[in-house]
Amino acid sequence: MEAIDLKYPFTSRWLVQNSPANRVPSHGTTLFASSYAIDFVPLDDAGRPAPLSVGSLFSPEPPERFPGFGRPILAPAHGTVVAIRNDDADHAAYRGLPSIGYALTQRGRAAAGWESLGGNYVFIERSGGGVVVLCHLQHESLLVQRGQPVRTGQVIARCGNSGNSTEPHLHVQVIDSADIKHAQAVPLTFGGSLPRTNEIVTVEP
Prior knowledge:
It comes from Zhihengliuella halotolerans. GO terms for molecular function: metalloendopeptidase activity. The chain has 4 helices and 13 strands. The protein is of the alpha+beta class. The protein has one domain: Glucose Permease (Domain IIA) (Distorted Sandwich). The strands form 3 sheets. Strands 2, 3, 5, 6, 7, 8, 10, 11 and 13 form a 9-stranded antiparallel beta sheet that branches. It has a two-stranded parallel sheet with strand order 1-12. The longest helix is centred in the middle third of the chain and has 8 residues. The chain is globular and about 50 Å long.
């Protein structure tokens, strides 16, 4: 299957996680057509998602502590918004020991369905085919509505920590239809290539 090429949906520095350049399925599952999904974690000027403290190792943290929380998310392609969610609250971030407890509850979130996993999201049906899915967006940050046309680079939302997320980040995947329960996964690239896990991507404004 031919990959769909996108623009990066952000500017500044982001850490790549769960890249399909390293393995497929990238997230260890084919659930909800996520075989080629990729995650991006926003970084500060020091290359960190947030300063790490002793408290971080033992207690959940407010998402506002992470400098990427609320960072603008851009449309990665021309198209039309075909599905949105904007009402899921951002929850605490989990690093260190709290992340273990959170991981143990993931099966329950998966069983609850797509809405529980994706949090706040935008689906963009590309003009050239395929549907781009952007997830874990900030509560009530969406700037688009269903049926609205968007252009590449347009600000559509902000980075959040909704859904199945241990810290503020952006999840991106491409599917062949807007019916996430029955869609097929589609490979994706950014500017003709695909970054690998733990690579830092820097996009100038």
